[in-house]
Write a structure and sequence with these properties.
Length: 327
């Protein structure tokens, strides 16, 4: 992965007075709020490798809990209790940080544009922010979110009815330099509970993957976008994918609000079902004798997702594809 892109690492609301440790590409970093805004430093002070996130914020500095050394927002040491004379020049590496739409984004370099957040960022939608994590690799988790064909089994009854009939749908796969999307048309509606809450006839569903690890779904009805979920995923450590997601939809009247309230717990159930299959599969893949993964005929996005993660343009960018499936 290149250093020069933003990754969503925390919700704004979870970063209060105490410093917060998160993993960024396997490196521990500490977020803390100073007067000038949020600062992000590597969470490992080379003096004794102590995590500064175990310490506290004192004025505009972070205080190490071990010997009380204090560090400014730029990572320089500004105080060593008991020491008379010059301070060491050693500095802790600092990361770029920005807060957008209720989430905190971090970058190792200095990206020249603000981060993409979600589909409806330029409107004023009804928004819910969620945070989750799953076992596995980034491509597996992204594929799980964007995979329409697992819903019959993994989410039976929730996203699909118990005896849902399959329907013939068209899947158009298109892409660009750093994204790929699958557009499903011809699907009247899904029969499960969640789909009932989402109301009315479905016209189009879109699943999209964007660099560096964004998986998003759009549900379109006859009168426009009904719901968009954008998940920012990152490989926090070798076994864990962490995600921050926005559920965005148009602001609605009271009925819509009630439905939106009911939606969040159901969404949480679906998430738990996905976490369960991802964990079982990931643990299995790590056991001895695990074969190379098979890419199935309905895994329309897998190769393109892997190319985008590797920093390459996906095949769909130059050769769009059309499939027909019984979904
Ligand atoms: Fe799922």
């Amino acid at each position: 992965m290149t250093a020069d892109h933003w990754q969503a690492v925390a919700l704004s609301r979870e970063l209060r007075k105490r410093p917060l440790r998160v993993m960024h590409d396997g490196v521990p970093v500490v977020l803390f709020r100073a007067q000038g805004g949020i600062s992000v430093l590597v969470d490992r002070w080379p003096h004794r490798m102590m995590p500064l996130s175990c310490g506290r914020v004192v004025e505009d500095t972070l205080e190490c809990p071990y010997h009380g050394w204090r560090f400014g927002t730029d990572g320089t040491c500004v105080a060593i209790p008991g020491h008379i004379g010059d301070l060491p020049r050693t500095r802790i590496a600092r990361y770029a940080v920005t807060e957008q739409q209720g989430a905190v984004f971090v970058a190792r370099g200095q990206p020249d544009a603000l981060p993409y957040t979600h589909v409806m960022a330029h409107q004023s939608p009804a928004l819910r922010l969620v945070k989750s994590s799953a076992r596995g690799r980034l491509a597996d988790v992204a594929e799980n979110i964007l995979d329409a064909t697992h819903t019959h089994f993994t989410h039976k009854g929730l996203l699909r009815g118990l005896y849902a009939r399959r329907q013939r749908v068209t899947v158009d796969v298109t892409g660009g330099q750093d994204w790929v999307e699958a557009r499903y048309t011809g699907e009247d509606r899904q029969d499960g509970l969640v789909s009932r809450l989402l109301d009315g006839a479905r016209t189009t569903t879109i699943g999209r993957f964007r660099h560096p690890g964004i998986a998003e779904l759009e549900y379109w009805g006859p009168r426009g976008l009904v719901l968009a979920t954008t998940f920012h995923l990152r490989q926090a450590d070798a076994q864990t994918v962490a995600g921050i997601g926005w559920l965005a939809g148009p602001r609605q009247r009271v009925v819509g609000q009630i439905k939106a309230l009911a939606f969040k717990p159901l969404f949480a159930i679906a998430l738990a079902q996905d976490r369960r299959v991802l964990r079982a599969a990931s643990e299995n893949a790590q056991l001895a004798g695990s074969p190379d993964p098979v890419i199935g005929p309905l895994d329309f996005l897998r190769r393109d997702i892997m190319a985008i993660i590797a920093g390459d343009p996906p095949a769909s960018a130059t050769a769009p594809r059309r499939h027909q499936i019984d979904l």
